[in-house]
Amino acid sequence: MNLIQSAKNEKVKHWKKLLTRKERDKTGLFLVEGEHLVFEAKAAGVIEEIIVTEQYYPKLPKAKFGNDEVYVIANNIERLISDTETPQGIFAICKQGAATDIKGTRFLLIDAVQDPGNVGTMIRTADAAGFDAVVLGVGSVDPYNPKVLRSAQGSHFHLPIVRGNLNEWIEQLKEKDIPVYGTALQNAVSMYEVEIGPSFALIVGNEGQGVDEQLLEKTNQNLYIPIFGKSESLNVAVAAGILMYYLRGK
Amino acid sequence: MNLIQSAKNEKVKHWKKLLTRKERDKTGLFLVEGEHLVFEAKAAGVIEEIIVTEQYYPKLPKAKFGNDEVYVIANNIERLISDTETPQGIFAICKQGAATDIKGTRFLLIDAVQDPGNVGTMIRTADAAGFDAVVLGVGSVDPYNPKVLRSAQGSHFHLPIVRGNLNEWIEQLKEKDIPVYGTALQNAVSMYEVEIGPSFALIVGNEGQGVDEQLLEKTNQNLYIPIFGKSESLNVAVAAGILMYYLRGK
Q: Which residues does chain B have within 8 Å of residue A237's beta carbon, measured at their own beta carbons?
C-alpha cells in the first residue's frame, strides 16, 4: 500500500482539478464520491482509478475492486478532492460516456437548464421512466458536475447522458419518425391532447426562459401541463417528471 | 419617513429573529422577501408590516401599499434580515395561516420531509394541481422557513398550508369517505390500479425512510410509481408531482 500524504502530489492535484468543468472537458474524466456512486460506477465498468482514505481502506471490498488501480490517501487529503461536507472516504475516477446515436424510443432533451439539482433529478427520473438517453444542449450545466451526479443517484451509469446540438437531434429524431414535443406556456396544447405512442422525445427548458423559441419552431407539437390552481408554473424537474410519465403511458 | 439605521433597533432584532423557527412558532408570524412574494402576500391580505430599503423606497407602489405600515431601513441593515445573497430591498412580515378543517376534495399530507426545497416544490405543485390543502406532519421542515417560501414561489398564499397530526387527519378524511393513499415501495399496488375519483388524499414521506409504517397501516391503499428503468426510486417532490397529477385525472 502506497500512502499519498501530500497535497502537492501530482495525482492529488489532478483529482482536485476534476472538480472543475474545464478539467473534466479536457480529460473526458470525472470524479464520483461515496459508496453508492462508486459501486454503481464499478457495475457500469467505467472506473479508471479508485481512491480511498486510510480509514476507509480496510473496508474496501477487495473481491470487487481487486483488479482496479487503488490509491490510498491520508485522511486529511480527502477534503481536497471532495465536494461534500461529510465525505465517505471512497472516490472513483471514471470515463465520461461517448456521444451516442439515436438508439431506442424515448429521449429527454434538456435546453439550458442550469441548476445542477434539477438536471440530476431529471436524469434520475428519465432512468425511472425507462428513457433511452438524456441529451443536454448548449447552456445546460455539465452533467458530470458533482451536484448533478449526487442528485441523479447513479442514473448516469444506467443510460447514456450526452451533450449534443439540440437542433441536430430534433432533425434526426424527426427523420426517424419519432415525434418531438416541446414544452411551452404559449402556442401549445394541453398534454392531454397528445395521442400516447410508443416513441417520443421531450424537450424541457431553462427555469426562467423556457425552451428556446427556435427549437420550439422545429418540434412536432408543443405542450403545457394544465394548471388547475393559482400557481404560475411548475418546477422544471417536476414538470419533466409529470410529462415523462404521462407521455410514456402505462 | 422614519429611517431605521441601527442594527440594535428593536424592530430589526424582531425581524431578524423571524429567520428562526422558534420565533416564528412563538409569534405566528413569518418574513417574506422579494417583490414576487411580497406582492402575493399583499393580494392574500396577510401582511402586518412592509419593510423596504432606502434604495427601494422610491419604487414602492404607494397605491398598493398606502394603508400598510411601511418601515424604511438603511441599505446596510438589509443583509441582517435577508436569507438570500442578493436581496431585492423589499420584505413583509405576514401572519401564518390558522389550522384548517377538511374543506375540499384533494389533500397532500407530508410526513417528515426535511428538505426545504422539496417541501416548497411540493406546495407549488399541489397549488398547480388544484389541491385544497397541504398538511405537514411532525418531523417536516417548517413551511414558513425562508427556503420553503422561495421554492413554493407564492403558493403559500393560494391554499391552506397547515401543520397537523397526520393520524388524526387520516381518520377524519376516512370519516368523510375521502380515500387516503399512502406511498410505499412494499405492500403497495401500482398507481395505475387506482380508480381515479373526484376526491382523495395523498401521503408522501421522508426522503430516506418513506412514509411512517403506522400511517401506512391506516390508509385505504398504498401506491408505488412503477420504475421502468434501473433507478431505485424517485425524488420525493417529483414522485409527489407525478402522483398528484395522475390521481386527480384530467
A: 121, 235, 237-238
Copy the grid coordinates of residue B212. 411512517
Question: Quick one: closest CA in B to A123, which residue?
Answer: B231
Helical ranges in A138-212 per DSSP H: 146-152, 166-175
ipTM of the complex: 0.95
How many other β-carbons are positioned within 10 Å of the β-carbon of residue A195?
5
Closest chain A residue to the Cα of B154, Cα to Cα? A231
pLDDT at B148 over 70: yes
CA distance A231 to chain B (A): 5
Q: Residue B96 is placed in which grid cell?
A: 401564518
Residue in the block written with cell 457500469: A44
As a whole number of Å, the CA-based R_g of chain B is: 20
Q: From CA B139, how far away is CA B147, in angstroms rounded?
A: 17
Mean pLDDT score of chain A: 96
- Average pLDDT of span B137-149: 97
Tens of pLDDT, residue by residue over A6-62, are 999 999 999 999 999 999 999 999 999 999 999 999 999 999 999 999 999 999 999
Mean pLDDT for all residues in chain B: 96
Cβ distance A245 to B242 less than 8 Å, yes or no, reads yes
Q: Tell me how far apart the alpha carbons of residues A99 and B213 are, in angstroms, rounded to a whole number.
A: 45
Q: Which residue has the higher pLDDT, A250 or B70?
A: B70
- Output the pLDDT for position A1: 67
pLDDT score for B14? 97
Position B1 pLDDT exceeds 70: no
DSSP secondary structure code for residue B51 in this structure: E
What's the pLDDT score for residue A186? 87
Percent of chain A residues topping a pLDDT of 70: 100
pLDDT class of A100 with cuts at 50, 70, 90:
confident
Distance from C-alpha of B216 to C-alpha of B188, rounded to nearest angstrom: 10
Do A128 and B233 count as a contact with CB atoms less than 8 A apart? yes
SS3 assignment, position B79: helix
Other CB atoms closer than 10 Å to residue A102's CB: what's the count? 16
Task: Quickly list H helices, chain A.
Answer: 10-17, 21-27, 35-44, 62-65, 78-81, 116-128, 146-152, 166-175, 213-218, 236-248
> Of the candidates A128, A227, A228, which has its C-beta nearest B229's C-beta?
A128
For residue B126, give the C-alpha cell: 399541489
For residue A121, the chain B residues in CB contact (below 8 A) are 235, 238
What region, left, alpha or beta, does residue B112 occupy, with left being phi > 0 and alpha being psi -120 to 50 degrees? left
For B161-195, give the DSSP string.
EEE--HHHHHHHHHHTT--EEEE-SSS-EEGGGSP
Look at residues B33, B75, B71 and name the one whose alpha carbon lies nearest to residue B54: B75
